[in-house]
């Protein structure tokens, strides 16, 4: 074999080896590039998951304040119950007064059910607040798993891979804007739902505390023989006309005139 032929053969072998090496380098580069994009996709999906988890946590923690307040209310009802049980043991009058007004007291189980219904409605609404967010995340996950993976598998050159990644980035950007808008909406609606639940709980608890206080006052007045009916009206009511009210005279007509009994209290109702 001549020198020229031998040199040509070596040149072909070297050129082929270099071309194969260059192709291997390109393939390795593209594989690393694709894998980096996959990690980026997973990070975006995880970010969605984290943001929804934070939303859920904040929402549920806000509702827990209702449960905490309810514990204090239930404790107040129980303390009042124990106090009345003790009061009944002192004498018959106290026992009579307690039995008379005790039915007006808020019942523990009824109060708990009423307050818990406020928070239950809010808890029940949470899935609907996250429904759009979950759907948007699922759409992005499906795009990565199906469209991106299918298209990138069919590529055999850098330009093709770059184009597939560019399309994925564009889809991701649009999806992220949608997710951000939906998160703002969910947050706004969540605040409204929480306010409704807290207002509902506040009303129920305020009514219960008001009943505790007013009933205690009635029982105390009864035990002091200054009894009044629930609502603050004495058992004996005298109606007087407004024209009888005169701020310039030191005396008024005797409301007890002509009566044969003495009452524990008397209320004038002006009409």
Provide an overview of this structure.
- Residues 1-19 form the signal peptide.
- Keywords: Coiled coil, Signal.
- This is Protein TsetseEP domain-containing protein.
- Residues 45-100 form a coiled coil.
- It comes from Stomoxys calcitrans (Stable fly).
- With 271 residues, this protein is mostly helical.
- It folds into two domains: 27-227, Up-down Bundle (Substrate Binding Domain Of Dnak, Chain:A, Domain 2), CATH 1.20.1270; 229-270, no CATH class.
- Helix content is 77%, strand content 4%.
- It is built from four helices and four strands.
- The strands form two sheets. It has a two-stranded antiparallel ribbon.
- The radius of gyration is 40 Å and the shape is rod-shaped.
- Mean pLDDT is 81; it is low at 2-24.
Helix and strand topology:
Elements lengths: L2 H86 L3 H10 L6 H47 L3 H66 L4 E2 L3 E2 L2 E4 L26 E4 L1
Parallel strand pairs: 3-4
Antiparallel strand pairs: 1-2
Radius of gyration: 40 Å
Low-confidence stretches are 2-24
Question: Please, what is the average pLDDT?
Answer: 81
Instruction: Output the CATH class name of the largest domain.
Output: Mainly Alpha
Q: Strand-residue fraction?
A: under 5%
- Give the fraction of residues assigned to helices: over 70%
What's the count of strands?
Answer: 4
Q: Say what the CATH topology of the largest domain is.
A: Substrate Binding Domain Of Dnak, Chain:A, Domain 2
Summed up, the helix count is 4
- Characterize the biggest β-sheet: 2 strands, antiparallel
The separation of the N and C termini measures 136 Å
Q: What order do the strands of the largest sheet run in, or round the barrel if closed? A: 1-2
Main structural class: mainly alpha
Order of helices and strands: HHHHEEEE
Number of domains: 2
Shape descriptor reads rod-shaped
CATH architectural group of the largest domain: Up-down Bundle
